[in-house]
Amino acid sequence: MPTEKAPEMPGGKAAADKPLRADARRNRDRLVEVAASAFAEQGIDTPLEEIARRAGVGIGTLYRNFPTREHLVEIVYRREVEAVCAAAGELARQHPADVALEQWMQRFVDYIATKRGLSTSLRILITTNSTLFSDTSGRVSLALRGLVDAAVADGSIRGDVDSSDVLHALWGIYSAPDTKDWRDRSRRLVGLLMDGLRFGAAKGP
């Protein structure tokens, strides 16, 4: 896919490096939020004009923040990694260990959906941005490990569970055919996976 570049804008890179005003920051955050949803729903070829329209800004605002489609993809991907990792800690504080694990895995389905939508551009970024994946690799597995270890420790899931096996099962969802009911089917699979993790647990049936 050819890289989409922004039209020439006054101010150039120096303008882009200036600290953002509060309203500009809100616009940028809204663009990233909308782009993540659009890419998950429609894939990487979602028109940037549609993303700008859904975010309630002009296309010039989008290009001032994200000079190319790949730049937007990178920011969306980093945001999704941050969000799914942060969710692990939030859920652990709010729920029993096994419930936190199950809800996080359901949140992981949304993360996978976005990553599937970004897959074409992510493959391009692998060759052009060597730090993107080194910066983010391992963070998701560490987040899951903490949740699994906590659930094993309190006896709410089986004691022989290894977090790497759980992650392997979750990534199996990623490779499933892209059908209209993929997300609903994936959520049901997470429920089945949790049933297996709970079966035979110290606190289980």
UniProtKB/TrEMBL annotation:
Pfam families for the chain: TetR_C_43, TetR_N
Domain HTH tetR-type positions: 25-84
Signal peptide coordinates: none
Xref: InterPro entries: Homeodomain-like_sf (IPR009057), HTH-type_TetR-like_transc_reg (IPR050109), HTH_TetR (IPR001647), Tet_transcr_reg_TetR-rel_C_sf (IPR036271), TetR_SbtR-like_C (IPR049445)
The entry's DNA-binding region: 47-66
Record SUPFAM superfamilies: Homeodomain-like, Tetracyclin repressor-like, C-terminal domain
Protein's recorded name: TetR/AcrR family transcriptional regulator
Top-level taxonomy: Bacteria, Pseudomonadati, Pseudomonadota, Alphaproteobacteria, Hyphomicrobiales
